[in-house]
C-alpha cells in the first residue's frame, strides 16, 4: 500500500490520543495520529516522523502522522495500514487460496477483519498491527484490549463450527527477531491467544517492507507464544 504527499517533520508532543503537535518547515502544526495506542516508546519529543499532507477543506487537521524513526528503524504507526496491506496480500494469493474476500464481517458478537471463501473452505481472519519493539523483539498489545481477547475467544468458536480461523500479526517494521504476546501489558489477551492456538486457530506474524511512502507485507516472523 502507498501513501501520497509525504512530508518529513519532527514530533513535539501528543496532547491527546488523536492529535500531535509537530514541527514542519520551521512552523508548528497539528497532525492527526492514526493510532490510538500509547506508542509512548516511539513518539518521543524530537523524533523524526513522516506525515501525509491533505489540504481538503473538510479536514480539521492538514496532516496525518504515518511513521516514526526509532533509532535507525522506521516504524509505521498507521492503524489502518495493516488491514490495507493484508487485503492486497490476500488478493495476490497469499496465506490461503481465496476466491472471495470480504472485509469487516460479523460473526456472533465480533466483527472480524476478513471473511474468505475458496479451496480451503470458509475462513475468518483477524489482523493485528504491531508497533511495540524492544531489542528487536516485537509484541502486542501495547495497552490492554478487551476487544482483542473477545476476538480470540470467538475465533475458537468459529473453528469449532468448521470455519478456518487465522490471526495475522502485521509487524509494521523490518528486521525483528520474533513476535510474542505482551504478558505484562495484557495477560488476558495473551492467554486467550495461547488458548486459540491450542484449539487450532492458526497464528502468524509477518514483517513489512517499509519506507516513507509505502508499506507491504514481507517475510514471516517467528511466533513465540510462551514466556
Side by side, the strands of the main sheet go 7-8-9-12-14-15-13-11-10
Top CATH class of the largest domain:
Alpha Beta
Unreliable runs: none
Structural class: alpha/beta
Mean pLDDT: 95
The profile of the biggest β sheet is: 9 strands, mixed
Number of helices: 3
Helix content: 10-25%
CATH architecture of the largest domain: 3-Layer(aba) Sandwich
Total number of distinct structural domains:
2
Gap from first CA to last CA: 34 Å
Taking all Cα atoms into account, the compactness measure Rg is: 18 Å
Order of helices and strands: EEEEEEHEEEEEHEEHEE
Count of distinct strands: 15
CATH fold call of the largest domain: Trna Endonuclease, Chain: A, domain 1
Overall morphology: globular
Task: Note the beta-strand portion.
Answer: over 45%
Structure overview:
With about 230 residues, the chain is an alpha/beta fold. Helices cover about 15% and strands about 50% of the residues. The chain contains 3 helices and 15 strands. It has helices at about 80-90, 145-160, 185-200, and strands at about 5-15, 20-25, 25-35, 50-55, 65-70, 75, 100-105, 110-120, 120-130, 130-135, 135-140, 165-170, 180, 200-210, 215-225. It has a 9-stranded mixed β-sheet. The model has no long low-confidence stretch (mean pLDDT about 95).
How are the SSEs placed, and which strands pair?
Blueprint: E1 6-16, E2 19-24, E3 27-33, E4 48-53, E5 63-70, E6 73-76, H1 81-91, E7 100-107, E8 110-118, E9 121-130, E10 132-134, E11 137-140, H2 146-160, E12 164-171, E13 178-181, H3 187-198, E14 202-211, E15 214-223
Parallel strand pairs: 3-5, 9-12, 11-13, 12-14, 13-15
Antiparallel strand pairs: 1-2, 1-4, 2-3, 4-5, 5-6, 7-8, 8-9, 10-11, 14-15
